[in-house]
Write a structure and sequence with these properties.
single chain; about 110 residues; mainly alpha; about 0% strand
Amino acid sequence: MEQSSFMPRAPISSLDVELERMICSVRELEARISDEQLAGPQVRAAFARMFPPSAPFRPSIRKLAEIYPVMRIWLNQNDTALSPHSSHRITMTLASTVYSDSEDTIAAM
């Protein structure tokens, strides 16, 4: 099996359970992308289905600040076309681009 490109050096065993679950879930999605040949909007939709709007932005996830830049890079590498948010905050960019429903976007923010 090919090594995941999503946070390959993250110390999984020493992380908070929610953070570990999130990283492992993105890695699982990465395998699905390859197996099912998902692209762009399909990747974004799969990510949004995998994580309820507030999940990626919980305090336990925010403890690992590097997750957001890595998540943005990973999503961009998978052609999700992230749109910069006017606040220039990476969490706002992720929330407003990944979750297309306005209620979901508000919940994520």
